[in-house]
Design brief:
Helix content is about 55%, strand content about 0%. By secondary structure, it is mostly helical. It has a domain at about 50-109. α3 packs antiparallel against α4 (about 90-100).
Amino acid sequence: MSRTTTGAQIRPGWAIAPDHDQSQAQLPRRRWRILQSAKPRMEPGGPVPSWIKTPEDFVRWLASRLSINELYTYFRDLEAIAKMSCDLELLRFSRRYLHGDLTRELAED
C-alpha cells in the first residue's frame, strides 16, 4: 500500500531549510531524529518509508504498526523529551495526540 502526500503542509518548525542554511536546519533535523529514535522497537525493523514527509505522516505510519498502549507510551516519552529539552514545538506536537482523541482514532483506522 502506497500513500502519496502531495501538497502536505509541513508544520512550522519541522521543515528542513535548504542546505546552504545549516543553522536553520539544525532544530528541525533534531526533532525528526527524536521522533524516529523515540519510537518503540518494531519488527521488522528498517528505515522509515519514503512517503513520510510530515510529522503527521510519521504518526499515521506508527499508528498502523503499534497498539494504542504503545502509541500513548510513545507520546508520553515524546512529552518528557520535549520538557527536558525545552522544545515547545515538540511539546505541543506530543500533547496534541496525548490529550486529544487523535491517538485513539489513529489506532482504530
